[in-house]
Design goal:
Residues 102-153, 192-245 are annotated as: Disordered. With 950 residues, this protein is of the alpha+beta class. Helices cover 29% and strands 23% of the residues. It folds into three domains: 5-319, no CATH class; 324-342 and 351-674, no CATH class; 699-949. It contains 23 helices and 35 strands. The strands form six sheets. The protein has a 16-stranded mixed sheet that branches. The chain is globular and about 105 Å long.
Length: 950
């Protein structure tokens, strides 16, 4: 009989647990039971076989596999109002399907933790500060906090609204919770077993407080842990031999490695009893009396909410530890105060003490005997939004809900080190975010030119939606754009101004105009004179003073910040970091002045810690968005810029370029999946294209807009009745079945003709269209349409279907029209086949095909997937799911019905017979034919791409 697997949660591993000692989850695979027991119960626990953890990131499920992700190492980086703030430094990935795999994962995690212990001991003698000690005197395994703050220890309040009430007092049977947490047969996936279906027992009110301290009263959790074949090894290596080539399983090892890399990047922060997602002015100290932490936090910054969904769904609220991605840094500094000299004649009310910041460690030396010292604490918190998350060139601009890429709220807090509530606490907020327009940039260029997308109305709607959402959250808004007023960035900046002016002319935001300051950073600071950013601060000084900051005293908000500065450049990284540091300096000087201290932070070597703190913040945000540290970091740190900094920036630019074209595609898919924005279908998309769709952009909405636009432009005869429109894939070259790559086109049907439209999806323009009179159609064929055999999804005969419309080319009622830059009298086939992307303005002209080629021509269409990683399959009613084949058959029947109606009208008038049926079912390209068409070179190119990208 094997020993049970155990996970220990330390005494402060869960919020308000009402328990003064560590406890553990004990997983016994022999008895199929899980129990919660105190760690001190030596007779029940073999502590050597367990793993102590500090919280749970969540449960990651892919296909039929699930993995528990506990936090095995942490590091304290700050303390706010006596509450410690931690960053995750290590996690474990534990499979929940078998004891063998779980034990192996726990053993590996323990070895890594032990190594961390050794590393920590090696550095302890170098003057570092250890993590907070546990209540039984043991020291947690972690390294030094990033900032030299004083360690703060606090006791946990016992509360009836805690885990003792939920788990012990209520005697809850966690059958369903155990199934969701510890069994691979969970997560509501098709074909999974029904494990642990016991309903929680109803408890009367008089039992709520019972058993609060009696750990032995915890009921066992029943679950099924029957091992299954081909189980996953949770280690950073690869899974064991997998059962099939399903992309969801094929990419699982890479997903697990990225998950580990992401959550151990020192970019995720948490606190057990402080709401890290809200700024000081919006804290509600009473939340812990009636709410679990995950219900109190701001969901905009709750990064592991999707991974915690299984716990939330079964009301296991106290296991839910919200994580915030971003940055937390803290510095304690000393100001030497020199009283005013006697010869000054200022009235007492105007007297100010002159200050000198001595830094976070320096002593007040060489200061006059009359000087006094005053200590302050500066805390910097950046909160990265979960809306439109992702990596540099893959997430740009705005989405349909008004969310922008790289949206980060940064809070600068000034307080005294002991957070004395009688002293004022100052909080100053700033935000950064991409320009709220639809645009993109190619990752394959060093200086890519931004390309604007979609119509003016679509952009205006998203633009206004973004700023209205911002206004509800922050009040007045002063936008600051730091992009260039020349070259590639000029057009985007002009559009930003255009939409802001249009919004203000329409009444602004609830009658308040949107402020926009365009500061050409590179021109104003040319010659690496980044100190010229002070010009921007001077221009906005009146607005900054009007908005002010938030002041809290005696736990009461005595002043609220009434507006916010929203800064952007192209990436919202490097130039934005320099500008935000300048705004933060302005705020700190202003706040110290309210404390009676006049001081200028710029150009003072003693304020190096301030620059370093902001540079660390910039590097963290940059690594999360571009995978490298921020550019111009040398200036942010030292207020100096030289050739060495420029060379370092060049190296970082090269690293960014490599990540943009290689690493970021799969990383983006992982981020979207971990946040719950996409389904497992995202891995099928990646396998086929080595990239994925943007879940923030509604594909259905774009396609419907393309149909509406095409219908409005190409159907010129008012007598034609529009019957339907669809978007499908079509070969790039006409009269072919397989010209790669395929293009997405619009097919329109009227009672007189078919229109095949080539559409520019970036500018919402029709590039060209071909009109096919219904009377010229001789046959319509639908069936299997395999265009590639590189992946399993591409060879699925159920979803890879299409139709071919055969028609007589020489009909006088057929026409081809092209949108070009200038008027042409003739268009040859070569011009048509190039299908060049043209300008916004053009002249429409037609070219009627002659009668010299009697052979029939055809046009082929392939069905688009009816579902992708970000959308649900189309359905009829509530039960029947529409397949791609059903959809194609419907299109064919609609065309045939329109043809029959027209012929019936002709037959009635002429008295002739109607035509026989034209729709036939037959393979267009069978799987055998596709294998013959897919050559060795195509396989080689795909294998190389897969080796590089995946």
């Amino acid at each position: 009989m094997s020993a049970p697997c155990q996970l220990y949660c330390g005494g402060n591993g869960l919020r308000n647990n009402g328990i003064n000692e560590p406890f553990c989850f004990r997983i016994d695979y022999n008895t199929k039971e899980v129990s919660l027991v105190p760690a001190s119960a030596a007779e029940q626990i073999d502590r050597e076989s367990g793993l102590e953890v500090y919280g749970i990131v969540g449960l990651l499920s892919v296909a039929s596999y699930s993995f528990l992700i506990p936090i095995t190492q942490r590091q304290q980086v700050a303390q706010i109002q006596g509450k410690p703030i931690y960053t995750i430094t290590n996690i474990a990935v534990i499979p929940t399907s078998s004891q063998t795999d779980a034990s192996h994962a726990i053993s590996q995690a323990k070895e890594h933790t032990t190594q961390g212990d050794v590393d920590h001991d090696d550095t302890a003698s170098e003057g570092t500060v250890s993590d907070a000690e546990t209540e039984d005197g043991e020291t947690d395994i972690n390294s030094v906090p990033a900032s030299p703050v004083r360690e703060a220890f606090h006791s946990r309040d016992r509360s009836v609204n805690n885990i003792a009430e939920d788990v012990l007092g209520k005697k809850v049977r966690f059958g369903r919770f155990a199934a969701n947490w510890l069994s691979r047969k969970t997560m509501g996936l098709p074909g999974l077993g029904t494990v642990g279906q016991d309903e929680p027992e109803k408890v009367s009110e008089n039992t709520k407080s019972a058993g609060t301290d009696d750990m032995s009263a915890v009921p066992d959790l029943k679950l099924s842990t029957t091992p299954t074949p081909n189980e996953i090894d949770p280690s950073p290596g690869s899974p064991k031999e997998l059962p099939d080539s399903n992309p969801m399983v094929e990419f699982l090892p890479k997903l697990l490695r990225y998950t580990r890399l992401l959550f151990t990047s020192h970019n995720f922060f948490f606190a057990y009893d402080y709401d890290l997602t809200r700024h000081v002015g919006s804290q509600d100290p009473s939340w812990k009396d009636y709410l679990p932490l995950h219900k109190a936090v701001d969901e905009l910054y709750f990064w592991n909410k999707h991974l915690m969904a299984p716990f939330i769904e079964v009301d296991a609220h106290h296991f839910v530890l919200p994580l915030m991605q971003g940055f937390v840094g803290q510095r304690e500094f000393t100001v030497a105060i020199t009283p005013p000299q006697p010869q000054e004649t200022k009235p007492p009310s105007e007297e100010r003490a002159e200050g000198l910041i001595l830094g976070d460690k320096e002593e007040a030396q060489s200061v006059g005997v009359d000087a006094q010292k005053q200590n302050f604490l500066l805390t910097l918190i950046s909160r990265r939004s979960v809306k439109r998350p992702g990596l540099r060139y893959l997430r740009r601009g705005v989405d349909d809900d008004g969310n922008t890429a790289n949206s980060v709220e940064t809070e600068q807090i000034l307080s005294v080190p002991d957070w004395n509530s009688s002293r004022k606490i100052y909080s100053y907020l700033q935000v950064r975010g991409s320009i709220p327009l639809y645009f993109s940039q190619s990752p394959y260029a060093f200086k890519p030119v931004p390309v604007l997308h979609h119509s003016t109305a679509t952009n205006q709607f998203a633009f206004e939606r973004h700023f209205r959402n911002f206004s509800r959250r922050y009040g007045k808004i002063q936008a600051v754009s730091l992009i260039d007023k020349q070259a590639g960035e000029l057009k985007l900046g002009e559009q930003y101004e255009k939409y802001a002016e249009a919004m203000n002319q329409a009444g602004g935001i609830e009658g308040v105009p949107l402020g926009l300051e365009w500061f050409d950073f590179h021109n104003e600071c040319r010659g690496m004179k980044f100190e010229n950013v002070s010009r921007l601060v001077d221009r906005l000084s009146t607005t900054l003073s009007e908005y002010g900051d938030t002041v809290v005293q005696d736990n009461i908000v005595v002043q609220s910040q009434s507006g916010i500065v929203r800064t952007n450049c192209m990436d919202c990284l490097d130039r934005t970091g320099v500008a935000q540091c300048a705004f933060g300096q302005w705020a700190l000087e202003r706040e110290l002045k309210q404390e009676g201290i006049d001081i200028c932070l710029s150009g003072d070597s003693s304020t190096q810690w301030f620059n370093t703190l902001w540079a660390d913040n910039g590097d963290a945000i940059s690594k999360q968005y571009s995978s490298t540290a921020a550019l111009k970091g040398d200036y942010t740190r030292t207020r100096k810029r030289d050739y060495r900094g420029a060379l370092n920036d060049f190296g970082l630019t090269l690293s960014r370029y490599y990540n943009n074209i290689v690493n970021d595609y799969f990383s983006q898919a992982c981020i979207d999946y971990l946040l719950g924005n996409v389904s497992t279908h995202v891995f099928q998309e990646f396998a086929a294209e080595m990239k994925t769709a943007d879940p923030g952009i509604s594909v259905q909405k774009l396609r419907q807009n393309a149909i509406d636009t095409s219908c409005r432009i190409v159907i010129s005869d008012q007598s034609e009745e529009f019957l339907g429109g669809w978007t499908l894939l079509t070969p790039r070259q006409p009269n072919t079945l397989r010209t790669l790559p395929f293009e997405e086109a619009v097919l329109l049907l009227t009672d007189a003709a078919l229109y095949s439209c080539r559409f520019d999806w970036n500018t919402d323009k029709v590039l060209s269209f071909e009109r096919i009179d219904l009377r010229s159609i001789s046959r319509i064929n639908h069936g299997t349409y395999i265009t590639s055999t590189l992946t399993d999804a591409q060879t699925d005969e159920r979803s890879n279907v299409g139709l071919v419309i055969e028609y007589r080319e020489g009909d006088a009622n057929n026409a081809l029209r092209v949108n070009t830059r200038s008027l042409q009298s003739n268009v040859d086939a070569e011009t048509l086949n190039t299908n060049a992307r043209t300008s916004d303005e053009g002249t429409m002209y037609s070219w009627f095909r002659g009668l010299s080629r009697p052979t029939p021509h055809f046009i082929a269409f392939k069905a688009l997937p009816l579902s992708n990683s970000a959308m649900q399959p189309r359905s009829v009613g509530t039960a029947t799911t529409v397949t791609e084949l059903d959809w194609v058959q419907t299109i064919c029947e609609e065309i045939e019905r329109a043809m029959s109606a027209g012929e019936a009208r002709v037959a009635d008038s002429d008295g002739g017979p109607s035509r026989t049926r034209v729709v036939q079912a037959a393979d267009i390209i069978s799987i055998d034919d596709a294998k013959k068409r897919t050559g060795f070179l195509e396989h080689l190119v795909y294998d190389i791409k897969k080796m590089v990208w995946a």
